[in-house]
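ok so i was messing around last nite and threw this chain in just to see what happens. nothing serious, just curious
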Amino acid sequence: MKVFLGGEGPDELGSWVYERPYRDAKSMRPGVVEALLRKVSAAGWAVVDGLPWRLIRKYRHGREMHAAEMRNVLGLALRAAEAGCQILAFVRDRDGDDARERDVEAGIGDAKARFPQLKIVGGVAIEELEAWLLALLGSSGTEAMHDAKALLADLHEVRSTEQKVELVEQADLPRVPKDAVSLKAWLGRAEDVLQAAARR
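result:
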């Protein structure tokens, strides 16, 4: 099955963050989203394209007015469908914005209704992707941390995209604390979608 990725930058997307003319097929490197998917299930799917959040064209349909993040999720789903993908996988940092979390989830629900052929593995990282990485290291209370990025860098010396991907690859998913709710929810969605893909 074909997978389309979405995320904020190179940490989430790896080489897929670059626009198509600037990609080198021989040196494509994964980001954290792809590494998380592979951690859940490595068979039955392949990434074919990706898009950073800043380049999403917000979805528009008639006179309907949606919150910006809902329209971003719908725009991402439209791009995935146009690329012939069966799976859309993305992560968006919450960054302390409760409305962002609600709107992303509403966008996922709307995208599933508008693009029923598309399976979606998406959600918000509370409060940021680095909190998920700390949870993968077994740390508790990561969703309440105010600067997980600094903590990850200072305590664990994990700074680069490559180091973050390696952290995911070496992680033991059963060690993820129960209070890493947003990460566990995302992994649950990934498991549902990718295990079904592997059985095909």
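not much to say yet. The first helix runs from residue 10 to 13.
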